[in-house]
Amino acid sequence: MFFTFSDILSNLFDLKGCVFKCPTSFHLLRIWFHSCFQKHTQEYGKIFKSHFGPQFVVSIADRDMVAQVLRAEGRAPQRANMESWQEYRDLRGRATGLISAEGEQWLKMRSVLRQKILKPKDVAVYSEGVNEVISDLIKRIHTLRSQEDDGETVTNVNNLFFKYSMEGVATILYECRLGCLENNVPQQTVEYIEALELMFSMFKTTMYAGAIPKWLRPLIPKPWREFCRSWDGLFKFSQIHVDNKLKAIQSQLDQGEEVNGGLLTYLLVSKELTLEEIYANMTEMLLAGVDTTSFTLSWATYLLAKHPEIQQRVHEEIVNKLGKDQVPLAHDVPKLPLIRAVLKETLRLYPVLPGNGRVTQKDLIVGGYLIPKGTQLALCHYTTSYSEENFSMANEFRPERWLRKDNLDRVDNFGSIPFGYGIRSCIGKRIAELEIHLALIQLVHIDIYCFPLLHIIKKAFPTAATFFVIYKTPFNLNIEIRLCNQTSKIWKLFIVT
Ligand code: HEM
């Protein structure tokens, strides 16, 4: 089914107007692959245009041009055409959430949500909840090991981190536990994971759902049908958990009790968003917050495994700054610049999303070209992340490059913007960082749990959204990551291929 790379290239325009033939919708999918951006940049330069079916896209792979575009944003930037998401919501009478909303509607929701989760101090209150999930993750690792023939090996660590991320983000969003890390995962949670898997495994199909013209649906019904089915599952799950919380709040109020809680409680009590908007935002945030986080955690452990000397330094930093037995909280993370640098460097090398989108809201001149209002832009941060102009020895894992004070604290390094930038950037960034930092600290510092040997076997990285990361990854390798304290009592991550 897939088109070859040269197919894609042969379907591109360059900005000087050299016209190739019009491609089919499959091509946009391929264009979003990380390496495609790089190859296109090599071939066409730092700014080039392409066609995806009827859609016209201008790709920008230059740090300063990306900065120029993002700095020129208005008050309600548009990321991409979300017609198919909107259509599903209209069909089912659902509201839009942050990802799918536009204009004033988006602005209203963003201004409510940003007050609660956009700053490190806002999410710090969730540290203890996240630590409970980490403690379950560690227990789960032991259970899985004990079930293996060798009593030591845990297979499919990606799946384990997926469950951890889902449990962690749900603890924050729904203020409840889902049971993802239990031996018997509750049926509701299993169904949700299936809906999520459907969304991702059918990702290509569901993307086609948006790209295939409506009149073709009777002939090719599957993509749109699957698209609706997976959204139904995702909305249903969120609704159950939001309604549970609503009932709990109501019963507290009925008994004259004071109502306290986190994000969801605030949203339900303050009524700044309608109930439908709350369902939609919880659904979209959970969708956006699981595999992104788990995937990054997998890559971070992989990179630490590949670089034992860095792992050793991370471990020493933790022991020196936090002591041996302390379970870290959010306020401990700033004391550990190296662990923060590890995450930044992981996201530079494996940024989950290879690029970001913006629809221009006014005419712009970028790189000497006039880009008319309403043009879809692809901002290729994977390419800029690997550019030697922006990062020396760009292919190498060098967390220390982020350690210079001016680097770690800079938000305007447009060479690597894995969470996007500006008013429409990732609203879950601080949640993701909290979950990853705290989990990494405990995984590297795991000798406090005093287990003799732990193997985590990683068969192949990609699952779910790994659709985006197939290139430049050890996709075809069998990688075994071991967490081991055999000789030194320090747990180490090894790779055995
Ligand atoms: C490592 C983890 C994550 C990465 C790399 C990531 C990356 C991104 C990126 C690149 C964007 C687009 C930003 C832009 O257009 O400028 C985005 C948007 C978004 N992300 Fe994340 N994300 C992560 C985790 C999360 C989590 C944990 C949540 C929810 C709890 C979340 C919720 C969202 C939402 C709702 C949006 C849309 C924001 C809007 O349009 O206003 N993300 N994310």
From TrEMBL:
<dbReference type="Pfam" id="PF00067">
    <property type="entry name" value="p450"/>
</dbReference>
<dbReference type="GO" id="GO:0016705">
    <property type="term" value="F:oxidoreductase activity, acting on paired donors, with incorporation or reduction of molecular oxygen"/>
</dbReference>
<dbReference type="GO" id="GO:0006700">
    <property type="term" value="P:C21-steroid hormone biosynthetic process"/>
</dbReference>
<keyword id="KW-0560">Oxidoreductase</keyword>
<dbReference type="GO" id="GO:0005506">
    <property type="term" value="F:iron ion binding"/>
</dbReference>
<keyword id="KW-0349">Heme</keyword>
<dbReference type="GO" id="GO:0020037">
    <property type="term" value="F:heme binding"/>
</dbReference>
<dbReference type="GO" id="GO:0004497">
    <property type="term" value="F:monooxygenase activity"/>
</dbReference>
<dbReference type="InterPro" id="IPR036396">
    <property type="entry name" value="Cyt_P450_sf"/>
</dbReference>
<keyword id="KW-0479">Metal-binding</keyword>
<dbReference type="InterPro" id="IPR050479">
    <property type="entry name" value="CYP11_CYP27_families"/>
</dbReference>
<keyword id="KW-0472">Membrane</keyword>
<dbReference type="GO" id="GO:0034650">
    <property type="term" value="P:cortisol metabolic process"/>
</dbReference>
<dbReference type="GO" id="GO:0005743">
    <property type="term" value="C:mitochondrial inner membrane"/>
</dbReference>
<keyword id="KW-0408">Iron</keyword>
<protein>
    <submittedName>
        <fullName>Cytochrome P450 family 27 subfamily C member 1</fullName>
    </submittedName>
</protein>
<dbReference type="GO" id="GO:0006704">
    <property type="term" value="P:glucocorticoid biosynthetic process"/>
</dbReference>
<comment type="similarity">
    <text>Belongs to the cytochrome P450 family.</text>
</comment>
<dbReference type="GO" id="GO:0008203">
    <property type="term" value="P:cholesterol metabolic process"/>
</dbReference>
<keyword id="KW-0503">Monooxygenase</keyword>
<dbReference type="InterPro" id="IPR002401">
    <property type="entry name" value="Cyt_P450_E_grp-I"/>
</dbReference>
<feature type="binding site" description="axial binding residue">
    <location>
        <position position="426"/>
    </location>
    <ligand>
        <name>heme</name>
    </ligand>
</feature>
<dbReference type="InterPro" id="IPR001128">
    <property type="entry name" value="Cyt_P450"/>
</dbReference>
<dbReference type="GO" id="GO:0071375">
    <property type="term" value="P:cellular response to peptide hormone stimulus"/>
</dbReference>
<dbReference type="InterPro" id="IPR017972">
    <property type="entry name" value="Cyt_P450_CS"/>
</dbReference>
